[in-house]
Amino acid sequence: ADLYFQGQISESWALEDGIVKEGSFNLDQGVGVRAQSGEKTGFAYSNAITPEALTQAARAARSISRAGQNGRVQAFTTQDVAQLYAPDNPLEVMTRAEKVELLKRVDAATRALDPRIQQVTVSMAGVWERILVASTDGGLAADVRPLVRFNVSVIVEQNGRRERGGHGGGGRTDYRYFLSDDRAMGYAREALRQALVNLEAIPAPAGTLPVVLGSGWSGVLLHEAVGHGLEGDFNRKGSSAYSGRMGEMVASKLCTIVDDGTLVDRRGSLSVDDEGTPTECTTLIENG
Predict the structure, then answer these.
(1) Within 10 Å of residue 167's Cβ, how many Cβ atoms?
(2) How many CB atoms lie within 10 A of CB 185?
(3) Given 3.30.2290.10, 3.20.20.70, 3.40.1190.20, 3.40.50.80, which CATH number is that of 2-200?
(4) Residues 90-113: pLDDT tens digits?
């Protein structure tokens, strides 16, 4: 069976109308056990990480996949993996008072940007996740995954019309990221810009129109169009639109798509994936 151990600490803070409206802290941990037999997969989990809980979960997973099947136990070997992130807890670089003070400071500075601002909401959140993967083939891999985010939302009013704008950012770093280069206020200024643009916005015309996608979150569309179709299971089973098409044109010759999981501090960058495989830079589609 494959074992997946996970421990996660998370928190979130939200300031609205100059008042802390939310402050939460969560601690989650557990282990998942996966047993496979051909196309059948059995999965069980436990919140308790004890030998007894692991044994029960393994038995349950095995009974789901195929009762009575036994396999040879492999000796575990660790991989030489480049660790992208330090083991430090990103939530501890600031005290609770300092976090609230940062939210209040950004709230006040945002309100001072434009007299048309009626409401400001500022929030921040952080996660510190640690995982350990022990696979059936004897692989043993671990990862530390920090993740923080800061958001600003603004509501403006002019001539009886109200509009909203919002912006934020973050990555696999700690809260100090938002203190440097005036980043937190950069999010506030962009949120205000969006809200003011919306004040002048008119309904879009109906019909077929060209669509231009900017960089950033519009990449989600690329993920849906290409990412799922290139997943291993779909191609192993031959059910993907891309199955057996290596070397064939599947897109415009202007199109090159790269999946890079090694870009430090980016949300999608990890030392190892959830199977314990080291991340790498992979060209999915080259020149179409």
Answers:
(1) 19
(2) 16
(3) 3.30.2290.10
(4) 999 999 999 999 999 999 999 999
